[in-house]
Amino acid sequence: MMERILSVCEKLKCSPTSPTLAEHLDQRDHLRHLRELFIIPKTSQLSKVDLSLVDSSEDCIYFAGNSLGLQPKNTKKYIDEELEKWAKTGVHGHTEGSRPWAWAEETLEEMMAKIVGAKTEEVALMNGLTVNLHLLMLSFYKPTPKRHKILLEDKAFPSDHYAIESQIRLRGLNMSDSMLIIKPRQGEDVIRTEDIVSLIEREGESIALVMLSGVQYYSGQLFDMETITTAGHSKGCFVGFDCAHAVGNAELRLHDWNVDFACWCTYKYMNSGAGGLAGAYIHERHAHSIKPALTGWWGHDLKTRFLMNNEMDLQPGVNGFRLSNQPILLVCPLQASLEIFNQTTMKDLRSKSVLLTAYLEFLIRHYYSRDPSDPDRPSVHIITPSDPQQRGCQLSLSFSSPIRAVFEELEKRGVACDMREPNVLRVAPVPLYNSFTDVHRFITVLGSALSASRQ
């Protein structure tokens, strides 16, 4: 990617650090119109901003889509439509209107399936991420005296870690025996794929479930899900992924990779709003062999659901895992976002993302690499892999300056990003709505923030 950037600079006769390059790349970005479909806060609207340090009329630099995506402009329109329908038609809204409440989420699942690389019947929109993770593990985690371990990564997102802990305890097992955690090698920031495969080969006979992230939230590492799934299956393990930080960020092929199950939230890169409707996937080969441990009315086939005879007509596959009707006010923002994704492809979004993040990486390394001859110079260390195949759009940064001070100075200057303990700032230029000019502005602001944080 840097070769492409340098080639453009040569034609423009400008430095790679010049704003001219960012403007040129934005002008030739065929996805730039998608930015206009989102509401981008102004710097003056952010609560931590110091108005003496910013142009209050400018859009903020929003690099926090890995934590909460921006609001699609159609979100309010769709929610207002449903509130109006409720006011005017009452109970009839369950079966009438453009999104009947009784099955509204099912009209979105084809679009969602395209994003995760699955068949429509393999995907369900329901519940929250951790609820879905529990439901799936209740069926896929079937420990025996010989095969009882769950493999997860070090520093897994707390909700995953806690869910796995509770599933192990629910079976009356010990954490020390049944939770198998893989860490990066000493002195390294990310986990090598060969180390994951090697551990599965060594311990596979005792592993019931491989349960990793798609993209690791802290380091930003994109795991090789296909290779890991193949390794797990070769040892008789089920393989599942929490794709919260991967969906809408990386190109996924859950069906083709033969992933057994996956779940994800939709409020990060999928822009459905805080606590938005989550997603679940089960490969079609398990449609009749894996059944839910807990059932609810919404898992009953729609054609016979309202016969009310209390004789379960369970839908096959992931649809049988539905418990209740979905909140229509959560369906609306997800619809608004999925319609934007439907205007492009994950391949095109990923292509822009790789270039956008490479540009950010180049500028950080150019200005803020460690200089042994000048130990007082502020420096930034990128812990996320440099290889585009091993990361999404997020870069996780650690600093020579105290991280909280840097984060607070960025907030004062109209930057929305994300700090995670103990020592990482996560910045995510999202291809749906971020620009190359955003990246260039961020680097300029970062310099001011680093200087201020050391005073």
From TrEMBL:
It is found in: Cytoplasm. Keywords: Acetylation, Cytoplasm, Hydrolase, Pyridine nucleotide biosynthesis, Pyridoxal phosphate. It is an enzyme of class 3 (hydrolase). InterPro entries: Kynureninase, PyrdxlP-dep_Trfase, PyrdxlP-dep_Trfase_major, PyrdxlP-dep_Trfase_small. Its main location: cytoplasm. Its cofactor is pyridoxal 5'-phosphate. GO terms for molecular function: kynureninase activity; pyridoxal phosphate binding. The modification N6-(pyridoxal phosphate)lysine is found at K268. It catalyses: L-kynurenine + H2O = anthranilate + L-alanine + H(+); 3-hydroxy-L-kynurenine + H2O = 3-hydroxyanthranilate + L-alanine + H(+). Pyridoxal 5'-phosphate binds at L129, T130, F157, P158, S159, D160, S213, D242, H245, Y267, W297, N325. Gene3D superfamilies: Aspartate Aminotransferase, domain 1, Type I PLP-dependent aspartate aminotransferase-like (Major domain). GO terms for cellular component: cytoplasm. Pathway: Cofactor biosynthesis; NAD(+) biosynthesis; quinolinate from L-kynurenine: step 2/3; Amino-acid degradation; L-kynurenine degradation; L-alanine and anthranilate from L-kynurenine: step 1/1. Its EC number is 3.7.1.3. GO terms for biological process: 'de novo' NAD+ biosynthetic process from L-tryptophan; anthranilate metabolic process; L-kynurenine catabolic process; L-tryptophan catabolic process to kynurenine; quinolinate biosynthetic process. NCBIfam families: kynureninase. Catalyzes the cleavage of L-kynurenine (L-Kyn) and L-3-hydroxykynurenine (L-3OHKyn) into anthranilic acid (AA) and 3-hydroxyanthranilic acid (3-OHAA), respectively. Has a preference for the L-3-hydroxy form. Also has cysteine-conjugate-beta-lyase activity. Homodimer. Belongs to the kynureninase family. This is Kynureninase.
